[in-house]
Design goal:
Layout (H helix, E strand, L loop, with lengths): L23 E8 L1 H19 L1 E3 L5 E3 L6 E2 L4 E12 L2
């Protein structure tokens, strides 16, 4: 997910969506796509149960902030892993 100006027009296969607000846990990530899969697994399997939080119905997503980097030579990228959360009752 990247933030775009209101006047931005997406071309296929890209699309525009508005994400609902609320609390998100955010984890910085730097690595390759295979490492990204491992990071998501560890966040959901290990961190989330220990956090006192639970997933809610909003989408999980990867946010590429303006300062995000991608190295085509190594495949290393930077992004933020965003998990919608609610406190456990």
């Amino acid at each position: 997910m990247v933030q775009v100006p209101d006047e931005f027009v997406a071309r296929s296969p890209a699309s525009i969506a508005t994400l609902p607000g609320g609390r998100y846990a955010v984890a910085a990530f730097e690595g390759t796509v295979p490492q990204l899969t491992v990071a998501w697994t560890e966040l959901l399997r290990d961190w989330l149960p220990a956090s006192g939080m639970a997933l809610d119905g909003r989408p999980l997503f990867e946010h590429m902030p303006p300062r995000a980097r991608y190295d085509a030579a190594t495949g290393v990228m930077c992004c933020e892993l965003c998990i919608p959360v609610l406190p456990l009752e």
